[in-house]
Amino acid sequence: MSWKKLSVIAAVASLSLAGCAATGTPDAGGDHADLKICVYTHGDGGTFWSVAQAGAEAAAADLGVTLDYQGSTNDSAKQAATIEAGIAGGCSGIAASAPDAGAIKDAMLAAKAAGIPTVTMNSGSSVFKELGAFTHVGQDEIVAGREAGYRFNELGATKVLCPIQEAANSGLTDRCKGLSETFEGETVDFNLDGGLADLAGSAAKLQAALEADPAIDGIFALNADIATGAALVASDNTGRNAIIGTVDMSADALTAIKDGKMAFAVDQQQYAQGYMSVVLLYLNLTNAHELGGGLPIYTGPGFVTKDNVDKVMELVAAGTR
C-alpha cells in the first residue's frame, strides 16, 4: 500500500469517535477501479457543493477507486431515483446527504438490503441509522446553531433573525433551533423558501423584515450566498449595520469577514465530508471497517473570523475549503 493510502486511513481513523481494531491492511497494492463508490447529494454544484465534490474526487484518486458523484439540486425525488439507479448500476458503496430523510429512506434501505454499505454525509446526523447507514460524516446542525448563539452573545446582539431558504431541509431548521437554545436574546425564524434562486428578492424580503422590526440587530444566514447576496444587502440598504454570521463560506463571504462587514462563518469543512465519505466506504469494502462506533463523525463546526480569514482564503483559492 502506498504512503498516501496509509496517511489517508490514519487521518480518518484519528477523526473517528470510536476506533476499530484492524487485523490486517486493506487489500494492499494496486488500484481499485473495480470498486465504484457513489456519492449522491442534494447539492446544487454551487460554491459549497463544488468543494464537497472536490473532496470526494480527491479521495477517489488517492485510493484508486471509481467515483460516481451526482447532485440533485434540492430535489428529493430526484435524489431517491439516483440512489435507486445506483443500486442497479453497480455501486459498491453509497454516500448520501439526507436533508429530507423520509424521501430517500426506501432507496437507502434498498441499498442496505442489496448488501451495499452506506454512510450519510452533510445532513442526516440524527437519522443515519434509520436509513441503514453505519455512520454519518458532517456537522451536527443543532450544535452548530448553539455555537453560533454563543458568538452572537459575545458580539452583543439582542435579537437575531434566522432566515430559512429551504423549507424542507431539516438541517436548516435545526441550525435555527440550536441558535435559540444558547442565544440570550430573542431569535426569529424567517421563511425565505427558495431564496437562493432569487437573491434580489430575498434581499428585499429581509430588508422589509428589518424595516418592520427595528429591534433586529443580528442575522444568522444559513448559507454564504444568502449572507452576502441578501442579508448583507438588506443590512446596508436599511443602514442597520446588523451583526451577520453565516454557515459555510464563499469568496464573497470571506471578503466580507476580512473587511469587517460580516462577523463570522461557521465552517463545516465540506471538503472533508466528501473526502471522508469515500474513505469510510473504501475501508468498509476492503477491510470490513465500520468506523464511528455507531455515532456520527463530526467535521465541524469550526469558525472563520477576521483572525484566521487570511489563511482560510488561501485554502479556498486552492479549492479545499
Structure, explained:
With 321 residues, the protein is of the alpha/beta class. It has 2 domains: 3-139 and 269-300, 3-Layer(aba) Sandwich (Rossmann fold), CATH 3.40.50; 141-259, 3-Layer(aba) Sandwich (Rossmann fold), CATH 3.40.50. 45% of the residues lie in helices and 19% in strands. It has a 6-stranded parallel sheet with strand order 2-1-3-4-5-11, with helices on both faces. A 6-stranded mixed sheet has the order 7-6-8-9-10-12, with helices on both faces. Strand 8, helix 8 and strand 9 (243-247) form a beta-alpha-beta unit. Helix 2 (49-63) packs parallel to helix 10 (270-287), helix 7 crosses helix 8 (224-238) and helix 9 packs antiparallel against helix 11. The two termini are 28 Å apart.
Question: Strands, helices and their partners?
Answer:
Elements: H1 3-15, E1 32-40, H2 49-63, E2 65-70, H3 76-88, E3 93-96, H4 101-113, E4 118-122, E5 136-139, H5 141-155, E6 159-164, H6 170-182, E7 186-191, H7 199-212, E8 218-221, H8 224-238, E9 243-247, H9 251-258, E10 264-267, H10 270-287, E11 297-300, E12 302-304, H11 309-317
Parallel strand pairs: 1-2, 1-3, 3-4, 4-5, 5-11, 6-7, 6-8, 8-9, 9-10
Antiparallel strand pairs: 10-12
Helix pairs in contact: 2-10, 3-4, 5-6, 7-8, 9-11
CATH topology of the largest domain: Rossmann fold
The count of helical stretches stands at 11
Write out the CATH superfamily name of the largest domain.
Answer: Response regulator
In helices, the fraction of residues equals 40-55%
Summarize the structure.
The chain is an alpha/beta fold. Helices cover 45% and strands 19% of the residues.
